[in-house]
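Q: Sequence in, structure out?
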Amino acid sequence: MYINSAYLNHSKIDFKDKSKPLIVGSCGTYRLYTRPKLPTYRPHGRIDYQLLYIAAGKAHFFFNDREEIVPAGYMVIYRPKEVQKYVYYGTDQTEVYWVHFTGSNVKNILRQYGISDSTRVFYSGASLEYRNLFRQMIRELQMCREDYQELLVLLLRQILILIHRQLGSIRKTENSYLKDEIDSAVTFFNENYNKEISIEQYAASRHMSTSWFIRGFKEYTGFTPMQYILSLRISNAQSLLDVTEYNVTEISSIVGYDNPLYFSRIFKKQKGMSPSEYRKWIRQGQKNE
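A: Exactly. Output:
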């Protein structure tokens, strides 16, 4: 299991603070590979807010003792003092990002971005921007550079803006068939991103025209199907560079590229540095923390 998390003032104790409208207290990510189960149970909840993003796989939540399976592309929000009970299973290959926050105006801020007081589980879209924003929050909270608390709030607001846009898009489209098809495609791409995928063949297998599928996919995710697959490959390559000792050739093969030189060019084009430079930058940052 891979865990990367950070806490304000290095304290894992939840807190309530109304000195500012919005304050990020902690954030992190869990990725289950070999660990069979990761349960959480807080019978009295917490005194802050929690937002969880299911980035891959699925998670099992329990509301009023009834199980609700939440797949990738959805978010769950907990408010202060709400019972929290959920489980991640290794067989689901779950990847989750989370953030805890507090402040004097949280309820109104959530309403502003389309998250009503009764919202609990909602479709946020499968945009890889969420992953990047959560990762930035984790790093800012770990490194505590100048003005980091202000930047944390700005990053959280970017997440809320993406959510608001997605919720607005869903209300405008109101096409359950398209939504179901995009959900299926996202699941398929997440499970097969490192294999050769023909968008034309995939669309045909689902009895859709290629142009209709690409247009609908971009409407829901913000990416074309190939852009989404590319981002999955680069995102997973980043994770492998972060937490493993695999060399660039091995990582290239794992994420679906037979040619490591081509992989390195693609990675540099997307991230602004080569895989080796990225690993060196990450390791240097970890030493300085």
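The beta strands are 2-7, 23-31, 37-42, 49-56, 58-63, 66-71, 74-78, 84-89, 95-102, 121-123.
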